[in-house]
């Protein structure tokens, strides 16, 4: 929004949608939230139908949705595992297919971004969650190659421990080598602007930027 982008977003929490819409009114852009569940293909179709009927030409998609459960092999629950993969992988992939088709129909060289995690390649002790993020890592590569002929770029961001308090202060993180603290969410946002901007990243596709202050370098992740 600070860069002048119109923002359309979804959430399964109606109140959060309203709160974010209110916050975005600070900027001279169009901002609209949709009470929509990514795991419902029908609701995703309705979302895309809105864009078509309203004449909104989307040029950027950011897939920033995910759930996780504390889980190991001994506590493996197929139902939870399905929910994780459906929410983190399959449903965003369906939305991406629909939006990519809009890009093609409107001849827009759009940009697609997936928010993954450092656990796409480092252990989290949550087997299904890590596996879902590893799947996204390969999806980014596959789609980058498939969509390149249409001028559509596909990239990702792999955050580490991202959190701050209500005043914008980070939390102590002893396993993070750089600064020994969590990462402010705004640094993920700035990376998203970089990767989705044609000005900066016209020739960048199939790339995942890791923003973790070195957390993934710490040996405890492989213990």
Describe this structure in words.
It is a single chain. This protein is α/β, with parallel strands linked by helices and 223 residues long. Helix content is 40%, strand content 13%. The chain contains six helices and six strands. It has helices at 14-24, 41-54, 78-105, 127-147, 185-196, 198-201; strands spanning 7-11, 31-35, 60-63, 111-115, 153-159, 208-211. Helix 3 (78-105) runs parallel beside helix 4 (127-147). It is globular, with a radius of gyration of 18 Å.
List keywords for this structure.
223 residues, alpha/beta, two-stranded parallel sheet, 6 helices, globular
Strand order of the largest sheet: 3-4-5-6
Instruction: Provide mean pLDDT, rounded.
Output: 93
Give helix and strand order, one letter per element, not per position: EHEHEHEHEHHE
Broad shape: globular
Spatial gap, N to C terminus = 41 Å
Largest sheet, in brief, is:
4 strands, parallel
Which regions contain 5 or more consecutive residues with pLDDT less than 50?
Answer: none
Q: What structural class is derived from the secondary structure elements?
A: alpha/beta
What portion of residues is helical? 40-55%
Radius of gyration, taken over Cα atoms and rounded to an integer in Å:
18 Å
Would you count the extended β strands for me?
Answer: 6
Percent of residues in beta strands: 5-15%
What is the subunit arrangement here?
single chain
Task: Count the DSSP helices.
Answer: 6
């Amino acid at each position: 929004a600070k860069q002048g982008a119109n923002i359309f977003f979804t959430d399964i929490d109606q109140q959060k949608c309203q709160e974010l819409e209110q916050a975005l009114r600070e900027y001279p852009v169009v901002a609209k939230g949709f009470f929509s569940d990514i795991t419902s293909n029908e609701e995703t179709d309705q979302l895309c139908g809105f864009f078509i009927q309203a004449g909104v030409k989307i040029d950027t998609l950011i897939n920033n949705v995910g759930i996780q459960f504390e889980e190991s092999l001994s506590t493996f629950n197929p139902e939870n595992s399905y929910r994780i993969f459906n929410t983190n992988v399959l449903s965003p992939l369906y939305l991406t297919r629909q939006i990519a088709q809009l890009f093609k129909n409107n001849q827009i060289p759009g940009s697609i971004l997936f928010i993954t995690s450092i656990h796409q390649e480092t252990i989290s002790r949550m087997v299904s969650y890590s596996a879902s993020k590893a799947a996204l890592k390969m999806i980014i590569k596959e789609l980058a190659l498939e969509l390149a002929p249409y001028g559509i770029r596909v990239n990702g961001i792999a955050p580490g421990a991202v959190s701050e308090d209500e005043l914008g202060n980070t939390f102590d993180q002893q396993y993070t080598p750089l600064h020994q603290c969590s990462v402010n969410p705004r640094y993920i946002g700035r990376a998203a602007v970089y990767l989705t901007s044609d000005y900066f990243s016209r020739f960048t596709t199939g790339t995942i930027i890791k923003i973790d202050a070195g957390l993934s370098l710490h040996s405890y992740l492989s213990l």
